[in-house]
Amino acid sequence: MERYARHLVLREIGGPGQQRLKAARVLLVGAGGLGCVAAPLLAAAGVGVVGLVDPDVVSLSNLQRQTLYRTEDVGRLKVDCARERLGDLNPHVQVEAHPIALTSETADGIVAGYDLVLDGTDDFATRFAVNAAAYGAGIALVSGAIERWTGQVGVFAAGLTRDQPPSQRQACYRCLTPEIPPDAETCARVGVVGALAGVVGAMMALEVVKLIAGAGEPLVGRLLIYDALSAETRTVRVPPDTACPVCGGVSAS
Ligand SMILES: [Zn+2]
User: Fold this and answer.
1) 18/47 Cα distance (integer angstroms)
2) CB burial of residue 249 (10 Å; 0-12, 13-18, 19+)
3) 60 CA distance to ligand 1 middle (Å)
4) What is the reported pLDDT for 185?
5) 126 C-alpha vs ligand 1 centroid, how far in Å?
6) Beta bridge partners of residue 97, listed in sequence order
7) Pair 39, 82: CB distance under 8 Å
8) Per residue in 190-224, pLDDT tens?
9) CA–CA distance, 168 with 141 (Å, rounded to integer)
10) pTM of the entire structure?
């Protein structure tokens, strides 16, 4: 009661919302800049089970923004370090570490059993695999991305609405990005300002709390774009695409 006191007094969360957080199983793909921010916020919020997927070890260049890790962690598996830190933060949370790469072959097996997926990875092949698995599992995807000074976050609820009439379906990530953009860049090449990971990772965690507690209006069908250099945000609609290779053409009857 004391740990979650600031949630319990919120009308939009309260006791019922906190119980829903405790019952939730949330999978976080990528324990990098975004995952390092979202994971401790979800653990602190009392999400019952937090799954972490990342095959990588901590490197020195990660520490500029991946603040869950310490200098002495360099060379250790990220999911092992993260599990220790989250356990210290909130021993009531069960952390499930998956030190493997999520690919189109492994995605369905990893995602199975979770209620919600966050994607904080930085390559399109992985994002596409996470999106297809979330859609297949009938769950929502909270997606975040950062590059240079720009970040974006969106909630793709196609999995939740796949059995609805076409007029009530929501977009998936592939409706927004049908193919890998030819100009796709990585943060390793073009850079990223560290604090931007804090902004976008925290927004991802916040959207998860809203979705689970049923609070407010999550970014379903919308993409929020944050331009850090000008300190401005804009939100664009993301409609479902009937030609989408993942969610289009389903139940075409
Ligand atoms: Zn789609």
Assistant:
1) 8
2) exposed
3) 37
4) 81
5) 16
6) 52
7) yes
8) 999 999 999 999 999 999 999 999 999 999 999 99
9) 17
10) 0.96
Q: How far is CA 225 from CA 69, 99, 129, 166, in A?
A: 27, 30, 23, 27
Question: If you search the block for the tokens 């006191």, which residue do you land on?
Answer: 5
Nearest CA to 219 out of 132, 151, 138 is that of: 151
Structure-token pair, residue 178: 């049908």
How far does residue 141's CA lie from ligand 1's centre (Å)? 12
CA dist., res. 218 & res. 21, Å (int): 16
Q: What is the C-alpha separation between 60 and 69, in angstroms, rounded?
A: 10
How far out from the chain centre does Cα 95 lie? 16
59 pLDDT tier (thresholds 50, 70, 90): very high
As beta bridge partners, residue 98 has 53
Mean pLDDT of the chain: 96
Are 126 and 29 in contact by the 8 Å Cβ rule? The answer is yes
Alpha-helix residue ranges (DSSP H) falling in the chain:
5-8, 14-23, 33-44, 78-89, 107-111, 124-137, 158-161, 173-176, 187-190, 194-213
Separation of CA 241 and ligand 1 centre (Å): 6
Radius of gyration of the chain (CA): 17
CA atoms of 48 and 23, how far apart (whole Å): 5
Instruction: Tell me which DSSP letter residue 111 carries.
Output: H
Tokens of 14: 């309260």
CA of 72 to the centre of ligand 1 (A): 42
Instruction: Write out the two tokens for 97.
Output: 């570490």
Burial of 32 per CB tally in 10 Å (0-12, 13-18, 19+): buried
The strand pairing partners of 148, in sequence order, are 192
